[in-house]
Specification:
The structure holds 2 protein chains of 2 kinds. Chain A folds into 2 domains: about 220 residues, PmbA/TldD superfamily (PmbA/TldD fold, 2-Layer Sandwich); about 230 residues, no CATH class. Chain A is built from 10 helices and 24 strands. In chain A, the strands form 4 sheets. In chain A, strands 1, 2, 3, 4, 5, 6, 7 and 8 form an 8-stranded mixed beta sheet that branches. A 6-stranded mixed beta sheet of chain A has the order 13-12-11-16-23-22, with helices on one face. In chain A, helix 1 runs parallel beside helix 2. The longest helix of chain A is centred in the first third of the chain and has 16 residues. By secondary structure, chain B is α+β, with helices and mostly antiparallel strands. Chain B is built from 9 helices and 20 strands. The longest helix of chain B has 18 residues. The chains are: A alpha+beta, B alpha+beta. Chains A and B meet through strand 1, strand 2, strand 3, helix 2 and helix 3 of A and strand 2, strand 3 and helix 2 of B. Strand 2 of chain A pairs parallel with strand 3 of chain B.
C-alpha cells in the first residue's frame, strides 16, 4: 500500500523529537451496504476508505495523527507536525523493518466484491419473503446486507512490518409486527469474518423465521412483572450482558486509569465458581476474530475468569506501559481515524454442565430471557440496564406465557457472583461494540445461565 | 490527483459507462484536538481528511458510491459500484441532479484570525482552563474533561449540468467539566464554548461558570412528584428542539412519521414562538451558501408567530409537494441525500433570565436532561427524560433538585411557551434557543 522506504522515513520523522515508539497504520477498505425495506431496495452504497494513522509515544504520552493525503512529502510533514507535540532529542537514528508474513486462520472462499449485487439482493429477498409470509401481523420488514474488505499495513519502530486483510459479511433482519397502534420487533443479525460463501453454510431462513417469530410472539404478549426474581438468560446473544457489564471493565482502557471495579483484583474471586470466561480472537472465521490486532500482535485466547477467579485483563501497548504488563492481542480500532486501544474480540462464558432443560425445571418462578435487546452500562458504577427482546415467565419449572417490555437492571460484579447454574449449550451472537476507538465487530456468547436474583422491570414507583 | 482533474476523468468515464447525469460532492477538513488531564497532555491529535461522494443517474435510477482517495482505481470503483447500486435500487422516485441556482448569497463562516493562533497559545489556553477550574474552590476534586479543538472544512460540489460551487468554514470549541465534592455529595458542572472568534474564548470565565454550576448542585435532592411550571434553560431547550427537529422535515411528513402532516398555515405554537432556519447567519455553525444538492440557501421562518409556514425540503420532497426546495438537502460522504436544518433556532424574546424566574414565581429550572435518544419519540412527540436543576419560589432559586424526570409532549410544549428569554445560544450543531418559560410539565420525583 505504501513503500517500505517511505514508511521507514515516516517513522524516523515521527521520532525526531524524542518519541520512544512510533507506529504507522495504513488502511484500504472496500465497503458495501444495501438496505431493503418491504421488499424493495431503498439504497445501496459502496465506498472506499483509505488513510494513514501515525502514533507516537514518549513514555505515557501519546500523540495521534491521521490523514488520507498520502503524498510522501505530506506524510513526512504530518509525522513531524505530530512529533512537534513532544519535546526531546531523537534516540532512534536508523531502523530496519522486518517484513513478517501473517498465517491466515480465516480463509475466504468468495470475496464479497466478486459477488454481483443482484445476487446479494436475491439473498435479501429470500429473508424478506420468509419474514413477510410468516404471519398476517407482520407489518414491516427491513433487511440489511453489509460487507467490508479491509486491507491493513502496520509498521513500527520496533521493526515490525506486517500486512493483513479482514473480510466481513453480515445480514440484518428486522421484523415488525403490529396490532392496533402497537408495534413489536424481532431481530437477527448473523455475521462472520468470512466471504459470501457463509450464506451457503448458514440457515438464512431460520434466522428470518426467528426474527418474525419474536415480533409476532411479543405483539400477543402481556406486560412483564416487576420485582426481584431468578432470571434465566439463554445462550448466544444473551452474552451481551457479560460483554457490557463485565467485559468492558476488564479492558486495560479502564483498568489502567483505575476507573474499573476490577482494578487490582487479579487472582481474586470475582464470579461464582461455575463461571469461566474467555476472550478469543483466534476462532476461525468468527465475527470478532483477527489474525493480528491493530497494533500488529497476533490475537490469542485469553482466559479472563477461571472458576470464578480473575486471571487476565485485555491489554494494549500504551495501557500495558501504564500497568507494566504485556499486551494480549486486543488492540483494536474502527479505522485509521482512531488510535487503537484494548477492546474485546469474541468474548464468552464457557460451557457448564447443566442442560437447558434442567435449568428451567429447577426454576420454580422467574423470567426466561430468550433473546436480549440493547442496553447501556455506567462504567463508573457498573450499573446496567438491558431490554429483553423476547421473554417468558417461568412457573413451576416450566416456560409459561410470553411477556413484553421487561428490562434487566443490576450491577456487573453482583451478577457474576449470583450465577448459580451454567448450561452446556454455548453459542455466540454478533454485535457492533462502540467505545473510544470506534465501532468494531465483536462476538458475545454464553450457554444458558441462571442468575439467582435480578431486578426485572423497575418501572414501578419505589 | 487534483480534484478537478479527478472530476473530469470521472465524468468522462461515467458518460462512457452509460450515466446520464453525475455529481461529485467533496469534503476536505482538517482538525486539531487537545485534551489535558492533571496538568499533562492526555490526548493530542491532528487530522486531514478528504471524502469524495459520487452519485449518478443510470437508466433513470440514482446510484451512490464514495471514496477517500482520488486515484485511478477509485474512478473505476466509483463508476462500477454506483452503476450496480442504481441497477438494484427499487425506488423509481425521480431524483433530479440540479443545474444550480441563478445566484448564491454571500455567507461568512471563515475567520482568518483563528489561523493566527499558534499551537503554543492553544495549549496554554487549555492548561489555563484546567488550572483556573482547579484553583477556584477546594471542593473541585478533578477536572474530568478539559478539551480544546478546532478545524476547518471546505465543501465542493460539481455536476454534469454545469453546477460548480465551493464554500469554506472554520470553527473552534472548548469544553470544561469539573467534579465537585462536599461530604457524600458529588456533582459535575460543565461549560461549552463554540465559535470561530478566538477572542471570545476566556478560560477564567468558562472555568468559573463550570465550577459555580457544579457547586450550586451540591446536596441536591428530589422533589415531590406533580405538575410544575418550568424554565428550560437555553441549552436544554436547544437539546429538546434538536431532538424533535426531524418533525419539520418534509421527508418525515411524506413518510407519515410527523404529526405536523396537513398542518401548514395552522397554529401549532404559542403566538410568541417564531422558529427560524437561517443558513446565512454570519459565522453560524451550520451556515452555508448552498445545500448538498447545490440549491441556494435562504432564511425562512418555519414557525412565524405560532403558525407553521413551511416544512424543510430538498429537491425530491419539494417536487412531490409541488413547492420549491427550501435548500435543506443534507448529505454525508457515505450517505444518500436527506434533509437537515441549518442554523435552527427559536427567535430570542426580550425577557432577562431573572424576569423569566419572576414570571414563573414557583417552579423548576431545568439545566440538564438525560436520555434524549431513548426517552424521546419524535413520531408521537412524547418525551420522558432524566433531569436536574433548581427549585424556584418567589422568583428566586431556593435549592438544587436532582433525581427527577420531566415528561411531556413536544407539540404541547410548543403551545405552552409562556415567555421567551433574550439569552439565545447555539449548540455545537447549530441548533439554538433562548431560555423558555413553559406553562407546566409533569415531574416525577419523590
Amino acid at each position: 500500500m505504501l513503500s517500505q522506504e517511505l514508511i521507514n522515513n515516516v517513522i524516523l520523522a515521527a521520532l525526531s523529537t524524542g518519541g520512544d515508539f512510533a507506529e504507522v497504520f495504513v488502511e484500504n477498505t472496500y465497503a458495501n451496504s444495501i438496505k431493503m425495506l418491504d421488499g424493495k431496495v431503498e439504497d445501496g452504497i459502496s465506498g472506499r476508505d483509505f488513510g494513514v494513522g501515525i502514533r507516537i509515544f514518549q513514555n505515557l504520552r501519546s500523540v495521534y495523527v491521521y490523514t488520507n493525503n498520502i503524498e510522501p512529502n505530506n506524510l513526512i510533514r504530518v509525522a513531524k507536525e505530530a512529533a512537534s507535540a513532544l519535546q526531546g532529542n531523537p534516540t532512534v537514528h536508523d531502523l530496519v523493518l522486518n517484513r513478517v508474513t501473517v498465517e491466515n486462520n480465516h480463509p475466504i472462499q468468495l470475496y464479497p466484491k466478486d459477488v454481483s449485487k443482484v445476487r446479494k439482493v436475491e439473498l435479501m429477498s429470500l429473508a424478506h419473503n420468509v419474514v413477510s409470509n410468516y404471519d398476517s401481523t407482520i407489518s414491516q420488514v427491513e433487511i440489511g446486507l453489509a460487507d467490508t474488505e479491509q486491507h491493513i499495513l502496520i509498521a513500527n519502530s520496533e521493526g515490525l512490518f506486517v500486512e493483513d486483510q479482514r473480510v466481513r459479511t453480515r445480514l440484518m433482519i428486522q421484523a415488525v409486527a403490529s396490532k392496533g397502534n402497537e408495534k413489536q420487533s424481532g431481530f437477527y443479525g448473523p455475521g462472520r469474518h468470512a466471504g459470501f460463501e457463509i450464506w451457503d453454510q448458514l440457515d438464512v431462513e431460520h434466522y428470518a423465521r426467528e426474527a418474525a417469530r419474536t415480533a409476532v410472539t411479543m405483539i400477543h404478549a402481556d406486560h412483564a412483572p416487576s420485582g426481584k426474581m431468578p432470571v434465566v438468560i439463554d445462550n448466544e446473544f444473551g452474552g451481551v450482558i457479560f460483554h457490557e457489564a463485565c467485559g468492558h471493565g476488564l479492558e486495560a482502557t479502564s483498568v489502567a486509569k483505575g476507573t474499573s471495579v476490577f482494578t487490582g483484583k487479579l487472582g481474586q474471586k470475582i464470579a461464582s465458581d461455575l463461571v469461566s470466561a474467555v476472550d478469543d480472537g483466534t476462532i476461525p472465521n468468527a465475527w470478532g476474530s483477527l489474525n493480528i490486532d491493530d497494533e500488529g500482535n497476533p490475537t490469542q485466547r485469553n482466559v479472563l475468569i477461571e472458576n470464578g477467579i480473575l486471571k487476565s485483563y485485555m491489554i494494549d501497548k500504551l495501557n500495558g506501559r501504564r500497568m507494566n504488563m504485556a499486551a494480549t492481542g486486543n488492540a483494536r480500532r474502527q479505522s485509521y481515524r482512531y488510535a487503537p486501544t484494548s477492546r474485546m474480540t469474541n468474548t464468552f462464558i464457557c460451557n457448564g454442565t447443566s442442560t437447558p432443560e434442567e435449568i428451567i425445571a429447577n426454576t420454580e418462578y422467574g423470567l426466561y430471557a430468550k433473546y436480549m435487546g440493547g442496553g447501556s452500562v455506567n462504567p463508573a458504577t457498573g450499573e446496567f440496564n438491558f431490554a429483553v427482546r423476547e421473554g417468558y415467565l417461568i412457573k413451576n419449572g416450566k416456560i409459561d406465557k410470553p411477556v413484553r417490555g421487561a428490562t434487566l437492571i443490576g450491577k456487573g460484579f453482583d451478577v457474576l457472583l449470583k450465577i448459580d447454574m451454567v448450561g452446556n449449550n454455548l453459542a455466540r451472537g454478533q454485535g457492533m461494540c462502540g467505545s473510544i476507538s470506534g465501532s468494531i465487530p465483536a462476538d458475545v456468547g454464553q450457554p444458558m445461565i441462571r442468575v439467582s436474583e435480578l431486578t426485572v422491570g423497575g418501572r414501578e414507583e419505589a | 490527483m487534483n480534484i478537478r482533474d479527478f472530476k473530469e476523468r470521472l465524468f468522462t468515464e461515467g458518460t462512457k459507462a452509460g450515466f446520464t447525469d453525475m455529481e461529485i460532492f467533496v469534503s476536505n477538513s482538517s482538525n486539531f484536538r487537545l485534551q489535558v488531564f492533571n496538568k499533562e497532555v492526555d490526548n493530542y491529535s491532528l487530522s486531514q481528511i478528504r471524502g469524495i461522494s459520487f452519485r449518478g443517474i443510470y437508466n433513470g435510477k440514482m446510484g451512490y458510491a464514495y471514496t477517500e482517495i482520488a486515484d485511478d482505481e477509485s474512478i473505476t470503483f466509483l463508476i462500477e459500484n454506483a452503476k450496480a447500486n442504481a441497477e438494484i435500487t427499487g425506488s423509481t422516485d425521480d431524483i433530479p441532479i440540479y443545474e444550480g441556482s441563478p445566484s448564491y448569497p454571500e455567507v461568512i463562516a471563515y475567520n482568518e484570525d483563528l489561523n493566527n493562533i499558534s499551537v503554543e497559545e492553544k495549549m496554554q489556553f487549555t492548561f489555563d482552563l484546567e488550572a483556573e477550574a482547579l484553583k477556584l474552590d477546594p471542593r473541585v476534586k478533578t477536572v474530568n474533561y478539559c478539551i480544546y479543538s478546532d478545524g476547518e472544512g471546505e465543501i465542493y460540489i460539481a455536476n454534469t449540468k454545469g453546477l460548480e460551487q465551493s464554500f469554506r468554514s472554520n470553527m473552534a470549541y472548548c469544553y470544561v467539566s469539573v467534579v465537585v465534592q462536599e461530604g457524600d455529595s458529588i456533582k459535575t458542572g460543565g461549560r461549552l464554548a463554540v465559535g470561530n472568534n478566538w477572542s471570545k474564548f476566556n478560560a477564567a470565565a468558562l472555568a468559573k461558570e463550570a465550577v459555580e454550576e457544579g457547586l450550586s448542585l451540591l446536596d441536591a435532592e428530589s422533589i415531590e412528584s406533580g405538575k410544575y411550571p418550568i424554565v428550560l434553560r437555553y441549552d436544554v431547550a436547544a437539546d429538546i428542539l434538536g431532538t424533535f427537529c426531524v418533525v419539520f422535515s418534509a421527508e418525515s411528513v411524506q413518510k407519515g412519521l410527523s404529526l405536523l402532516e396537513g398542518k401548514l398555515e395552522e397554529k401549532i405554537a404559542a403566538d410568541i414562538v417564531t422558529l427560524l432556519d437561517d443558513p446565512l447567519l454570519e459565522n453560524g455553525i451550520a451556515s452555508q451558501p448552498f445545500d448538498a444538492e447545490g440549491v441556494a440557501s435562504k432564511t425562512k421562518a418555519v414557525i412565524s408567530d405560532g403558525v407553521l409556514k413551511t416544512f424543510l425540503h430538498n429537491l425530491k420532497t419539494a417536487k412531490k409537494d409541488g413547492v420549491e426546495s427550501t435548500g435543506n438537502a443534507y448529505k454525508g460522504i457515505k450517505s444518500p441525500i436527506g434533509i437537515s436544518p441549518t442554523n435552527f433556532y427559536i427567535q430570542a424574546g426580550d425577557k432577562s433570565y431573572q424576569q423569566l424566574l419572576e414570571e414563573m414565581g414557583e417552579g423548576l429550572i431545568i439545566i440538564s436532561v438525560q436520555g434524549l435518544h431513548s426517552g424521546a419519540n419524535p413520531v408521537s412527540g412524547d418525551f420522558s427524560l432524566g433531569a436536574y436543576g433548581y427549585y424556584v419560589k418567589d422568583g428566586r432559586i431556593q435549592r438544587p433538585v436532582d433525581q427527577i424526570t420531566i415528561a411531556g409532549n413536544f407539540f404541547d410544549l410548543l403551545k405552552n411557551v409562556v415567555a421567551i428569554g433574550s439569552d439565545l445560544e447555539f449548540d455545537s450543531s447549530g441548533v439554538g434557543s433562548p431560555s423558555l418559560l413553559i406553562k407546566e410539565l409533569a415531574v416525577a420525583g419523590k
